[in-house]
Structure formats: structure tokens, C-alpha cells
Write a structure and sequence with these properties.
The structure holds two protein chains of two kinds. Helix content of chain A is 31%, strand content 25%. Chain A has 28 helices and 43 strands. In chain A, β10 and β11 form a beta hairpin. In chain A, α12 runs parallel beside α13, α21 packs parallel to α22 and α25 crosses α28. By secondary structure, chain B is α/β, with parallel strands linked by helices. In chain B, the strands form two sheets. Chain B has a nine-stranded mixed beta sheet with strand order 2-1-3-4-11-10-9-6-7. Chain B is built from seven helices and eleven strands. The chains are: A alpha+beta, B alpha/beta. At the A-B interface, α1, α2, α3, α13 and α15 of A face α1, α3, β5, β6 and α6 of B.
Chain lengths: 998, 273
């Protein structure tokens, strides 16, 4: 019989959670509440005696100092009460740990059908909010109907004895697992099945699939194992493996690129091979520190003689867009499995985030599933819990607001790991599988969650997207597995390891079986969360926190024993073979028998038309804008633009110091509140070497030309790590492309050809700049279909496409962390320098955006010139000359001079006539141009000579001084004073939009 | 001289074990990173150690009150032997999640030698969120706390969502009477924070950041001394370096103050033996 335990804080204690609900009800929904108290509810669906219940109530679930609890509803006062619980099948992490604790204290084991479910009851005292408002609070603040259910009762309808009753969200599938075979008599019928089963097979693939199953020798081989037509397990497998998410069909596509201005055409066969793989392979030959790229779950670089670092990044956009918290949490926890599954496995040492969302204060008529503010809150919290509970620091992150992300948000997650260069004398980056090695699945159990996640993210978001692919990650289970796998690695038990991400076992086993050329899997051995899953569901489920490991039979016993010590579930589900076949059985009966090389065989390449029109031809022009007179106002207004302003509240929620490795924190300066250009960690505690890491994204430049967007993005990411002292000779890159759909359709995607051209151009820029800067691409991913269809005020629907977005990450090794530099001005009297040339490049800038302009003169990168300057900066850092270095990024020189002054809480005297300029003669343009390749450096006057000597051949200017008088003062080009404002006023403007958030 | 053997627990979501081991080594102790299960099933006996450290992390996900399940687990299997461990002159340190576990086990505050009673609690921060920031701590010179001896004011990072110290007035009074309040949140000038956010980052009553038992040999605190194991961990280190350079000096590379807490523990054991 189930029991419901209600737990609440004692009435005299401040309820921070309840207070948070009050605050958000007021801020987000305009509903004023008197008070909210939160009751935590445990529904224990297990056969426990009264005495046992008393023990768990007292010993585990009630803190005698602060809490009260009862198996009857707690008699808290309210006008309305809302109960919120999970829907059946949604991962309930606290429920699982409650089971662990109860089992332990009572010395019992829960039966298969016993469980604990957690939920919450909110007791709301209000100035009489009506039912509509309470419903709004439930649906728009407390619960997301994709994963949660809720009930509301008023004071007069409340029965104090029964409360909301006993709600048990148990999954009961009254279903006998069965394999179905699918007729393939015609392309049309297979297409039909694909649509019905939501397989998302590409129509072009269908003939290839059919012809394989119609081959005589294939049919003969299948007949021997009792198969004829393909089974649903097989087609689901093919669908997963061929999805754009897994196979990157867009990036491997054939592009007919045409420049419509001069009608020149160019054929690009495979963007990935041409613009990513080829340059990286070429650079690998020149850079001895590149250890392993382009094949494993993440790229590997050399940290020192004894250690390698591992890096990769991806996005988790579609799930986050539907269930922000769960999607983002699953995203960060998921990316952490990639370094764990790289080489023989690495230890995670840092993570980072990049969020692109709609305007937080959006008040327009479009109706996204989740208001951008709510979505943003959920995304922030998801990555927070995923990172913090994994014990992995988050020393860097970035946020970008833009209307284009209303259709689909972007959640970038990046992970860095470290591993010993050798494991028991063997190189740790290499791994192989032999015939006879066992296939072991480690970590969580398999349920229906995540099914068709991969295919859903390969489609544009619409109302019919199945919600089933949303899930909630479990960092606790994964942390246990992480610790276990590192020990197993060091014991030499791991032959091969890879993670279960998109596509689940179908992808991890399907791909790893290529290393031995075959496998035999017994699907009935896979541990399930509940009975009733079909075979194909077990095979493609994306239930989280799982790794697939190849282990030699002679190591099995010790491997499993170690797994048990770490309280990790590990199960042998089959073995690798050299049969050339992927062979799946269920209770002895074959349900899949496919040639291992089928997935790598000749599927038709996707083909795209790409048509480029220059910004000039498209009618872009520079605005007719005369110089402003009120610079103090334009400064404070720019500093309080959402994409410039302080977002300290996010940074502080993220543990950026766990592991004790922090060298340069995300927040620096006298008040520890300025954004650092980059993060630096000391991943090997015994070493004085560091890893510098930064990211950039500049999607607004795509409105003009995605080539320059990509070039500037890479340049910014490079300047960011150089600013903290990274070495120009060792910079690794990670490219993450997020693009709207590029497949032309006259009605649904009329500008598809242009977006395709933008993708070709951005990819070209990645090649050009990476070759010039000598940055091998250690890892990268693409996520297409960043579009959404949103309802408007009249019931009409709008397609909202994101700006073409590239997030670029840079990583570098710092030989001596004691030479690291931060961006904050340090000492009054220090000289202020600018390095690099300021040009008339305000296209896509914050300054133009402030007035609603786009402009045309997008910033451009001149890699050869820039690279020489960056090398010179490296020499200055090596000699420990600069007191501070800060790149000039979005907002331009003016905004970033202010950052340097604010960082030191100092004044600054600047003379714009001393800024090196190229064809630019207006104060506002010099201040707010976003030209690439520039830095601000502050310097001890005693170092002046040696510093200027290093830069004598480059454009630089000694443009001013840091002062004690606490005023930020700028003299214009003509010598006229244009601004004099206390530095602290600038800072308060910079903190205005989000400064009150915690 | 025998080694000072230090047990650093790991597993079940704990996550500060490696840097704690590193800090202990800098302090001259011999650290042993041991999985909780190996201690619980007695594969590893706690008797071979002189210092036991329950470090930071999210034990069992911290879903039912931070440190609660860890406390239940340890108490059920090891309860008496930990009390015995301390009686034998050994030391116990709980950091962040470990502090939460110590108070939930009742090892702290340990009035009247009762090491089973829960009488203080660490609850959700008043600010309503997890927070990572550096704080200034003022130590209590009158405290018997072995770990804070000779320290006056230290800066350390906090990284928690549930760090608000709470106890009934009568309990708090006793804590102060016994000088068991070893560290309190303070302003940069060393005066008490008096609840001012963010100097007192979580709303702890009387700015209490850490307490010890009446013997001073069991100590728990929310801030993380192991995260200040290198001069570059300090948020102001590049500024301090620059100012030192102007005086023609190198940055002070003496072992950072976080290590002193471990050093005090190791030294106390050495002096005892």
C-alpha cells in the first residue's frame, strides 16, 4: 500500500524556495501573492510496516531541527494549494536516491514494482488570486506539462484528511514485446511506413535501403537466421544511423554554389571534408601537439609529457526548447560522456556553456511554447545542476539574446577532460576491439525516454514533435560511473569505450562493432526501467548515463567487482565478433542481421543549391547617421544593452572552482565582477601548466555575410585566450555550427538557397582563418534546423529562423600559469595602449543595433597582419610586461575601455586622436566600430620602452592613462572633450538590467 | 617520525576528493583516497588513520537535504567507531557537504559528549540559489578548534546551495559559550558580516560558517580550504602580483591559507604522537 509523506520547513523558518515563487509570480506574471510555502511530498509505493515508515520518516526525511512531517497532509494555511508531480516515466532522481536510502537504513530491497515518487505541494496565500491566476502560476511557473502534471484546490475544496489523494505516476505498459517485419515491395510503401513510424528516413535513402534487402546474397544470409523482410529493429537502426544528427548529411552534402552577382559557380563536394577535415589533417602534420582528431568522441591534444587533454562541444537545442531544464541538464551531462568515451577514457576537468535565447523581456505577439525568460531560467538551472552535481567546474560561458532564437533556442555545451598519455604503457588515445571481447553496458537502465530524439532534432520544431524525447539527466548516477570508469581504465580493464548518446545502443554498439567487424547482442539482457519495451525501443532508446565498454573475458570478474564497489550497474549484453554482421537476438531469436559495412556504404549524398548575393546587391547600406552629442548617455545605454551587460547572476550559480584548479576565474577585477576574456585552469594539480579556454559567437554579422561572421568569431575566440596569456603556437579549435534549414523549398523555405550559400561561406572562412592562424579543429559538431513555427496573435503561424550561428571554442596550453594576465586595469598612472587598427566597420554592431540599423561594413579579419601582432603580444606576455590585457569585442573600443576601467575601479583619460585608424574620422565610429584584431593593454610606465620596442612595426597607440580620480574621460579626435562620467556610473549602468538577479 | 595517515572519502557523488588529497600532501600528510563502500564494508578500516576528511560534493545527489543520506549511511555502519576514532585523539574534518553530513550524523556540535543528536542544521541559502564566491572568515581565537589555530582572518571560496547555518537560540548560545563557533563570515576588514549579503553568502545566523565539537577535534565548515591550495586560486592574485612587481618584489608564494587548516591538523597529530 502506498504512503504519502509530506515534509515542510518549520513555520518560523524563512522558506527561500517559496519566496522565490512569490518573487517570480510578481516579476513574470504580475501576480502578487502574500506568501508561498513549499511542501516536499514523497509517495512511497512499497510494502513497509508502520515501524519502518516511522524509521524512514525520522531518520532520513525529517530534519528535527528545521522540519516537520506527516503521513497525513500537513495542516499549512493556504488560500490555494497546487500539487506538481512528474508524469509517468519521467526520470525522478530524488525518488531513486530515496529508494537507496530507505533500502539502506531498513536493510531491505525494493521489489521490481516498488518505488518512491517525489512531488511538491505549494501552499499559496494570496490577495485572492482567482483560479485563472493560480492556473497560470501552475502552468507557467511551477510545471511544464511535457514532463509534469498538476492539480489545484482551493481552501474550501480541500479535504484535510485525504489532500490530493495518492498519485502514483508508475509506467505500466501492458504490452508484449514483439518484432514486426516491414514489407518493402515498393519505395512508396517504405516511405509510408517511415512517415507512420516517425522514422524520418530521407526519401533519397529509401531505394538504397530497399536494394540492400533485395540483394540475393543478403536474402540468403538472412534466411539462415530466420529473417526475410527487414524488421522494425533494423529500420529503426538505419534511421538513427542515417539521421542528420548522427551522420551529418548536410555537412557531407554536395553544394552547387553560385554567386549570382557574377554568375560564377563552384561545386563543393562535402563541406566537412573540404573545409574541416582537410585543413585539420594538414595542420596535424605541422603541430606535434595534436594527438588524435576526427575519429573519436572528442579531439586529443598534448598537455605535457605525461598528460593529454581532450575536448569536444555540441548543442542540445530541440529538447531544451521543449523542456528547458531537462533538456539543458541532459545536454551538459551528455557532453561530459564524450571525453569519458575518448581514447581509453578521460577525467572531466571543465565545462562551458553558450546560450542563445529570445529577448528575456519579450512582450511581442508570438507565442513560443515557453516564454524566453522562463526558457532561459530553465536552461540556466539545467546546466547549473548538471555541472555542479558532476563536480566539474564551469569557468567560462556566454549568453546571446536575439529574436531569431524564439523559434528554437541554442544550448551549447563544451567539455574538457584530461588523461594520462599512457595507460599501463600503452598510448591512451588509441583503442581497439578484438573478436571475443565482451560488450558491456554501464550506468543507467533503459526506458522509453529519448526515443526518436535524434530524428526529432533533425526536424524543424512543430506542434507534432513527439515530446517523448525530452528527458532529465542524472548527474549523480553519471558521477559514480565516471569515478568507476577511471579506476577501471587505470587497472587496464578497458579495451574500448564510447558513450551512449543520440541513438543509444544502436549508435554506440553499431559504430564500435566496426572496430572488430561484428557483434552479437542479446537484447533481453539489457536492464530495463520497466517491462514492455519493444526490441527496437531497447536498441534505440536514449536513456541517459550509459557507456558501452569492450572488456576482455579474463577481466570480466574484476571489472564487475569494481563496478559493484562504485555502486554502478554494469551488464554484459553480448560480444564483439569478426563475422562482418551486426547480429541482434531477443530470447534466442534473431531480430537484426545487417552487414557492418552497410551503414558506411554508398548512400546517396544530399544535394543543395546555394545562391549567394552580396550585401550590396541585397540592398544593404550604411545608415545616414550624424555624430551624437550626449556620449555619457550613449555609453550608459550601450553598457546596459542585454548582450553587453553584466550576467554575474549566472556565473555565480555555476561552481567554477571545484577540483581546486582555478587560475583565472570567469569573474575578475577589483570587485570580482568583470567578465574575464577567458578561463584558465590548472588541470594537473602538481603542475604549473595551465589550460586556457574561451569561446565566441557573433551571429549578428551573419545578417550581412556569414563568411565574416565566422572569421570574426574565430578571431575573437583566439584573442580571448591570448589575452590571458595563451601561446599563439598552441591553439586548438572546436567549431559548432547552428544553422536554419538550408534545403530550398518554394513555400516552406524560400530563402533556403541563400542560407545554404551562407553555410558554404562560413565553412570556407573556418578553413581560411584556421589555416592562417594554424588552428587544428580538434572537434566540432553541427546542428541544423534552427527554425520554429510560432503562433501569432490572430492564430496565424510564423516561421522564425535563427541567425546563422557559429560558436567557436579555443583551447591552449599555458606553460607557466604565474605569467597569466587578467583584463582589469591595475594601478593608477598605468599607460593605456591600443593594439591594432580601428576601421569603419560598424555593420552588425551593437551601436547600429541601438538605433535599429544593420549597416553594411561588417568587420573583417586580416589574418596575416593580425597574426604578426598576436605573436608580438605573446613576446610581451613572455616578458611579463602588460599589467592587463583585454580584447576589443562587441560594443567596440569605447565599451571595452570602460570594462578595463571598471575592472580596476579606476578612472581613465583617453585621447581618441592617438588611436591608429584607417579611413575613419568620427568619434562615435572610432569608439564603437567592432574591427577585429585589437586589444587594450595597460602598462607600468617603467615598462614603456621595452613594450613599445616590441610593437614598433605594428599599429599601436598610447592613448591614455589610468587615473585615481575615478572619472572616465575621453577627448575626441579634434581634441574636444566628449565624455566625463564617474566610472562607477558606468558600472551601475552595466549592471542595471540583471544586477538584481541572484 | 611516522606518517600522518589521512582518510579522504570518495564515491557517491563526492567531488572534492582529488584536491583534498593534494592539499593534505602539501601539508605533509599521507592521504588515502578511499571509496565510502570500502570503508562501510570494512575492506579498509578507519583505525589505520589519524585524520578523517568528509569532503565536498553532492552525496547521493543531496536530494533529501544535503549530506543527509551520507550521514545515515555512515552512522548506521560506522557510527560508534567514528566516535571511538575521535576519542582516541584523532581528528575529523567536514567540508561543505562533509560539514552537512557531520551535523546530520550528530557528530557536531557534540554537546555533553552526545555525538548522535542533531541539534543544528544547514539549510537552503536565503538568496535562494547555489552560489560560488569568495568570502572572508574571522576565526575565534578562544575556540578549542585544532584546525584554525594561529589563523586570524582567511579568505576561502564558498560553493553551495544549502549552507545557511541554523539552530535554536538555546543551542546557538551554548555554541558561543563553549567557543565552538570557530569561523564566522566577515567583512574584508575583519569585522563580522552581520548577515550582510554577499559577505554572509547564505543568511547563516550569527554569520556562523563553521563549528567544532567541544574538544576542537571535530570541525566542519562550509567554505572550501582545499580550493585554496595554490596562490593562483585567489581571485585577486594577478592584482597582488602587479602591485608586488611595482615594489620590485615577486608575489608571495608561501603556502596559501587554505593549506594551513590541513597543516594544523597534521601538526596536531605529529605533536600528539
Amino acid at each position: 500500500m502506498p504512503h504519502r509523506l509530506e515534509i515542510a520547513l518549520k513555520s518560523d523558518l524563512f522558506d527561500a524556495e517559496g519566496e522565490g515563487v512569490c518573487q517570480k509570480a510578481k516579476d513574470y506574471l504580475g501576480i502578487r501573492l502574500k506568501n508561498v510555502r513549499v511542501i516536499h511530498v514523497l509517495t512511497i509505493d512499497a510494502n513497509l510496516s508502520a515501524e519502518q515508515l516511522g524509521t524512514v520518516q525520522k531518520e532520513i526525511f525529517t530534519n528535527p531541527v528545521t522540519q516537520i512531517s506527516s503521513f497525513d497532509p500537513l495542516p499549512l494555511e493556504f488560500d490555494w494549494t497546487i500539487w506538481v508531480g512528474y508524469r509517468p516515466g519521467v526520470r525522478d532522481n530524488p525518488g531513486s536516491t530515496a529508494v537507496e536510502a530507505i533500502e539502506d537504513i531498513l536493510g531491505i530491497t525494493f521489489a521490481e514494482d516498488e518505488a518512491v515518487f517525489t512531488s511538491k505541494r505549494y501552499c499559496i496565500g494570496g490577495v485572492d488570486p482567482g483560479i485563472d491566476q493560480v492556473d497560470k502560476i501552475a502552468g507557467e511557473l511551477l510545471a511544464n506539462d511535457i514532463i509534469q502534471q498538476w492539480k489545484i484546490l482551493s481552501k474550501k475544496d480541500w479535504n484535510p484528511e485525504t489532500g490530493f489523494g495518492l498519485i502514483i505516476p508508475k509506467v505500466i505498459l501492458d504490452h508484449n514485446p514483439a518484432v514486426t517485419s516491414v514489407p518493402i515491395d515498393s519505395d512508396a510503401s517504405l516511405q509510408d511506413i517511415s512517415a507512420k513510424r516517425n522514422l524520418a528516413l530521407n526519401p533519397n535513402d529509401i531505394p538504397t535501403i530497399r536494394s540492400y534487402f533485395l540483394k540475393k546474397e543478403v536474402q540468403a544470409a538472412r534466411a539462415k537466421v530466420g529473417l526475410s523482410d527487414p524488421t522494425d529493429v533494423e529500420l529503426e537502426y538505419i534511421s538513427q544511423a542515417r539521421s542528420d544528427h548522427c551522420n551529418h548529411n548536410t555537412f557531407q552534402g554536395l553544394f552547387h554554389y553560385r554567386d549570382l552577382t557574377n554568375n560564377q559557380t563552384e561545386l563543393v563536394d562535402n563541406l566537412f571534408k573540404t573545409f574541416i577535415e582537410a585543413p585539420t589533417l594538414e595542420l596535424k602534420k605541422k603541430k606535434s601537439w595534436v594527438v588524435s582528431v576526427l575519429w573519436d568522441n572528442a579531439g586529443v591534444g598534448s598537455f605535457d609529457d605525461n598528460n593529454y587533454y581532450v575536448i569536444t562541444g555540441e548543442t542540445h537545442n530541440s529538447p531544451s526548447n521543449m523542456e528547458a531544464y531537462g533538456g539543458a541538464l541532459t545536454g551538459i551531462v551528455g557532453i561530459y560522456r564524450d571525453p569519458m568515451g575518448t581514447g581509453l577514457g578521460s577525467k572531466l576537468v571543465m565545462g562551458s556553456y553558450g546560450f542563445c535565447v529570445g529577448p528575456r523581456n519579450y512582450t511581442g505577439n508570438l507565442k513560443p511554447r515557453l516564454h524566453p525568460r522562463r526558457l532561459f531560467d530553465g536552461v540556466i538551472e539545467g546546466v547549473r545542476d548538471g555541472g555542479n552535481k558532476s563536480g566539474i567546474p564551469t569557468p567560462f560561458g556566454q549568453v546571446f539574446f536575439h529574436h531569431g532564437y524564439m523559434g528554437k533556442c541554442l544550448v551549447f555545451v563544451t567539455a574538457v577532460g584530461i588523461m594520462p598519455a599512457t595507460v599501463r604503457g600503452k598510448p591512451s588515445d588509441k583503442k581497439s576491439i578484438s573478436h571475443g571481447d565482451l560488450v558491456i553496458m554501464c550506468g543507467g537502465r533503459v526506458g522509453k525516454d529519448g526515443i526518436h530524439g535524434v530524428t526529432a532534432s533533425s526536424e524543424t520544431f512543430s506542434a507534432s514533435t513527439p515530446a517523448g524525447h525530452v528527458q532529465i539527466g542524472d548527474p549523480y548516477t553519471q558521477k559514480k560511473m565516471h569515478d568507476f570508469l577511471l579506476e577501471a581504465r587505470d587497472q587496464g580493464f578497458i579495451q574500448f569505450i564510447t558513450d551512449n548518446g543520440g541513438g543509444g545502443l544502436s549508435s554506440s554498439v553499431g559504430e564500435s562493432a566496426r572496430f572488430s567487424n561484428g557483434c552479437e547482442i542479446q537484447l533481453e539482457k539489457v536492464p530495463l526501467k520497466y517491462e514492455g519495451l519493444d526490441q527496437w525501443e531497447i536498441w534505440v532508446s536514449e536513456s541517459q548515463e550509459r557507456m558501452t565498454v569492450a572488456v576482455k573475458p579474463e577481466h570480466l570478474e574484476r571489472f564487475l567487482k569494481l563496478s559493484a564497489t562504485h555502486a554502478v550497474v554494469s551488464t554484459v549484453i553480448g560480444r564483439y565478433t569478426d563475422s562482418g554482421k551486426l547480429h541482434l537476438t531477443y530470447n534466442g531469436k534473431t531480430c537484426t542481421y545487417i552487414d557492418i559495412d552497410f551503414m558506411t556504404s554508398a548512400f546517396p549524398q544530399w544535394v543543395f543549391e546555394a545562391e549567394w548575393l552580396t550585401p550590396e546587391i541585397r540592398g544593404f547600406f550604411e545608415p545616414v547617421l550624424k555624430t551624437p552629442s550626449d556620449y555619457a548617455k550613449i555609453f550608459t545605454d550601450l553598457l546596459s544593452r542585454p548582450n553587453i551587460s553584466s550576467k554575474e547572476w549566472i556565473t555565480r550559480q555555476y561552481d567554477h572552482e571545484v577540483q581546486g584548479t582555478s587560475v583565472i576565474k570567469p569573474l575578475v577585477g577589483a570587485d570580482r565582477d568583470m567578465n574575464s576574456d577567458a578561463g584558465v585552469i590548472r588541470p594537473v594539480l602538481e603542475s604549473e601548466k595551465g589550460l586556457a579556454f574561451a569561446q565566441a559567437l557573433l551571429p549578428t554579422y551573419s545578417a550581412i555575410d556569414a563568411y565574416h561572421m565566422a572569421a570574426c568569431t574565430i578571431d575573437e575566440a583566439v584573442r580571448r585566450i591570448l589575452s590571458v596569456g595563451a601561446n599563439v603556437d598552441h591553439i586548438g579549435g572546436v567549431d559548432n555550427f547552428c544553422w536554419p534549414n538550408i534545403q530550398y523549398d518554394p513555400t516552406d523555405n524560400p530563402n533556403g538557397k541563400f542560407k545554404a550559400a551562407q553555410l558554404v561561406r562560413a565553412s570556407k572562412a573556418v578553413r581560411d582563418i584556421c589555416m592562417a592562424y594554424k588552428i587544428p579543429l580538434l572537434s566540432g559538431k553541427d546542428s541544423m534546423y534552427v527554425d520554429g513555427h510560432l503562433k501569432g496573435q490572430y492564430g496565424e503561424t510564423h516561421k522564425i529562423s535563427a541567425l546563422e550561428t557559429l560558436q567557436f571554442s579555443t583551447i591552449g596550453v599555458i606553460d607557466d600559469i604565474s605569467k597569466c594576465v587578467t583584463m582589469d586595469g591595475k594601478v593608477p598612472g598605468d599607460l593605456v595602449y591600443i593594439l591594432g587598427t580601428t576601421c569603419d566597420e560598424l555593420g552588425g554592431s551593437e551601436y547600429y543595433e541601438q538605433f535599429g540599423y544593420v549597416g553594411r561594413n561588417v568587420p573583417k579579419v586580416h589574418p596575416d597582419r593580425f597574426m604578426d601582432l598576436y605573436n608580438a603580444l605573446g613576446r610581451a606576455v613572455e616578458k611579463e610586461l602588460p599589467a592587463s590585457i583585454h580584447g576589443i569585442y562587441r560594443g567596440g573600443l569605447g565599451v571595452h575601455l570602460a570594462m578595463v576601467a571598471m575592472g580596476g575601479n579606476l578612472g581613465m583619460d583617453i585621447d581618441l586622436s592617438l588611436v591608429p585608424k584607417d579611413e575613419i574620422s568620427r568619434d562615435d565610429y572610432v569608439l564603437f566600430s567592432e574591427s577585429a584584431g585589437r586589444f587594450i593593454v595597460t602598462l607600468d610606465p617603467a615598462k614603456r620602452e621595452s613594450f613599445e620596442k616590441i610593437f614598433q612595426e605594428f599599429p599601436f597607440g598610447h592613448i591614455g592613462t589610468l587615473t585615481e580620480k575615478l572619472y572616465f574621460i575621453i577627448k575626441g579626435i579634434e581634441g574636444n572633450p566628449i565624455i566625463r562620467v564617474p566610472t562607477k556610473d558606468l558600472k551601475s549602468a552595466w549592471k542595471r538590467p540583471f544586477g538584481k538577479l541572484i | 617520525m611516522n606518517d600522518v595517515n589521512v582518510l579522504v572519502l570518495t564515491g557517491y557523488g563526492l567531488n572534492c576528493d582529488n584536491e583534498t588529497v593534494h592539499s593534505v600532501s602539501i601539508a605533509g600528510g599521507k592521504s588515502h583516497r578511499v571509496h565510502i563502500n570500502s570503508v562501510l564494508d570494512q575492506t579498509v578500516s578507519i583505525d589505520q588513520f589519524q585524520i578523517m576528511i568528509l569532503g565536498g560534493g553532492f552525496s547521493w545527489g543531496d536530494d533529501h537535504g544535503a549530506g543527509v543520506i551520507e550521514a545515515v549511511r555512515l552512522k548506521k555502519t560506522l557510527g560508534e567507531s567514528i566516535i571511538e576514532f575521535v576519542k582516541n585523539g584523532n581528528l575529523v574534518l567536514g567540508i561543505c557537504n562533509g560539514f552537512q553530513a557531520l551535523v546530520n550524523m550528530g557528530l557536531l556540535p557534540g554537546f555533553d559528549r552526545d555525538h548522535n543528536r542533531r541539534s543544528v542544521a544547514l539549510i537552503f541559502n536565503d538568496c535562494g540559489n547555489f552560489r560560488n564566491d569568495w568570502v572572508t572568515l574571522k576565526t575565534n581565537p578562544a575556540s578549542p578548534c585544532v584546525f584554525t589555530k594561529g589563523l586570524d582572518q582567511i579568505e576561502l571560496p564558498v560553493r553551495h546551495g544549502e549552507g545557511k547555518f541554523y539552530s535554536a537560540d538555546s543551542v546557538t548560545e551554548r555554541l558561543f559559550q563553549n567557543s565552538q563557533v570557530a569561523v564566522q563570515y566577515a567583512m574584508p576588514d575583519g569585522s563580522l558580516a552581520n548577515g550582510r549579503f554577499p559577505y554572509n553568502p547564505n543568511g547563516s545566523i550569527h554569520d556562523i560558517a563553521g563549528i567544532c565539537d567541544p574538544t576542537g577535534r571535530i570541525f566542519g565548515l562550509m567554505p572550501h580550504p582545499e580550493a585554496f591550495n595554490h596562490p593562483t586560486n585567489h581571485p585577486d592574485w594577478t592584482r597582488k602580483r602587479e602591485i608586488a612587481k611595482r615594489r620590485g618584489e615577486r608575489m608571495d608564494n608561501a603556502s596559501p591559507l587554505g593549506i594551513h587548516i590541513f597543516q594544523n591538523a597534521v601538526d596536531a597529530i605529529k605533536q600528539n604522537s
